[in-house]
Hints:
Layout: H1 2-27, H2 32-62, H3 73-83, H4 94-122, H5 124-127, E1 128-130, E2 138-140, H6 142-172, H7 185-196, H8 198-202, H9 206-230
Antiparallel strand pairs: 1-2
Amino acid sequence: MMIRIFPYGAIQFMAFDQYKKVIKKQFGISGHVHRLMAGSMAGITAVICTYPLDMVRVRLAFQVKGEHKYMGIIHAFKMIYTKEGGFSGFYRGLMPTVVGMAPYAGFSFFTFGTLKSIGLAQAPNLLGRPSLDNPDVLVLKTHVNLLCGGIAGAIAQTISYPLDVTRRRMQLGAVLPDSEKCLTMVQTLKYVYQQHGIRRGLYRGLSLNYIRCIPSQAVAFTTYELMKQFLCLN
């Protein structure tokens, strides 16, 4: 759902740069720790701003052919608002999403930044090249950016996946017959674990998610690094 991806990515990377500056200026924290903190805060900010769009996306994607409850994006917004408690209906499952996004975004930025720093420090000639906007600054080559971004996405996804499962379960809400057992984050985690265990429950579908997440994060971080050069931000 492109209408969610554009604002989510823009808000996340913009917020990451701003939070990095604030954390360094206000608390004097820099290096790996401030990447982790800024990444977590940026992810949470992006999620809160775009969560209603994610809710609608999940509802539309879950529909079975021939049983369309929602006729489109606008209709889904109207139905959720009128049938599920107004604006609060759009934020069902927000808590596990926020709790899951903090480690996901945090470890994504942390892992990518750490791999970038180590790569440029240990093998600058092999892995790096001069930045397009500032020849004095070394940046990773494009294929190395893609590799580091993919690794970052895989690590972050593995850490936060059980909370992602919880989020999706809560977002589907009234659509599922056992929705009364999944009203809170803790209830949902317990229910999924008791019914299906860890591998078939909390980590169900992880391998398929890697297929989406790894290239997505690889392209996102590579685009972010290239855009910084094009906009002369190095």
